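Severity: low
Component: inverse-folding endpoint
Summary: output formatting inconsistent between runs
Steps to reproduce: submit the following structure tokens with default settings.
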């Protein structure tokens, strides 16, 4: 029997998400400059949401 499992199958969730995001950016031919700028916006948004969530506890 052939092993059809990918090493990604056992990877942590953050690694799987990173691979998916890289695929999405590359398959849509997004320039590195645009991708990095967009990722910085996403990072700031998520940090604000996390901080708001943390302060509600």
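Observed output (run 2 of 3):
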């Amino acid at each position: 029997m052939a092993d059809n499992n990918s090493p990604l199958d056992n990877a942590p969730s953050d690694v799987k998400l990173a691979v998916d995001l890289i695929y999405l950016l590359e398959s849509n031919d997004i320039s590195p400059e645009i991708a990095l700028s967009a990722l910085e916006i996403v990072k700031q948004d998520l940090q604000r949401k996390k901080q708001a969530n943390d302060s509600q506890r």
